[in-house]
Amino acid sequence: MNTMTRQQVLDMYFMDARHKLIDLAAFLDRVDRSEGEDDFRIQAFREAMQHLGSGDTDRAAKVLMTFSDPTTEPIPAATTKAACGAWPGADNG
User: Fold this and answer.
1) Cα separations in angstroms, 82 against 1, 43, 48, 59, 79
2) Is residue 33 helix, strand or coil?
3) Shared domain check, 42 and 31
4) Quick one: 64 and 51 in the same domain?
5) Residues 24 and 12 in one domain
6) Domain count, the chain
7) Is-contact 90 44, C-beta < 8 A?
8) What pLDDT was estimated at residue 74?
9) CA–CA separation, 21 and 27 (whole Å)
10) Are the C-beta atoms of 74 and 29 separated by less than 8 Å?
11) DSSP annotation string for 35-91
12) Residue 42 and residue 28 in one domain
């Protein structure tokens, strides 16, 4: 298996990552300009963003775990019909 050089990774993925970063900035601008209180989703989102600048090599795993339910016991029944993208039981704040 050949691994790419840093230059190859940048050449291949930079524009896509740039687009995503601008899209995230626009999302945060919309959230910050809107009225109302933060909920667990944006709190988890902001916590996950802190991992991006860490320099760690396992940022993706840490971001994913920020949104994930860490419990191991199954719940008796679902409380909603759809996923919400973040675990509402997290202590994000």
Assistant:
1) 39, 20, 22, 26, 9
2) helix
3) no
4) yes
5) yes
6) 2
7) yes
8) 86
9) 10
10) no
11) -S---HHHHHHHHHHHHHTS--TTHHHHHHHHHS----SPPSS-SSSS--SS-TTS-
12) no
**In the prediction, which pLDDT does 39 show?**
93
Closest CA to 12 of 3, 24, 22: 3
Q: Which domain holds residue 4?
A: 1-36
Is 22 among the domain residues?
yes
Query: If you write DSSP's letter for every residue of 1-32 in order, what string do you get?
Result: -PPPPHHHHHHHHHHHHHHHHHHHHHHHHHHH
Query: Quick one: which of 53, 48, 54 has its CA closest to 86?
Result: 48
Query: 63 and 47 in one domain?
Result: yes
44, burial (CB in 10 Å: exposed 0-12, middle 13-18, buried 19+): buried
For residue 52, is it within any domain? yes
Mind listing the pLDDT tens digit for each residue in 36-85? 999 999 999 999 999 999 999 999 999 999 999 888 888 888 777 777 88
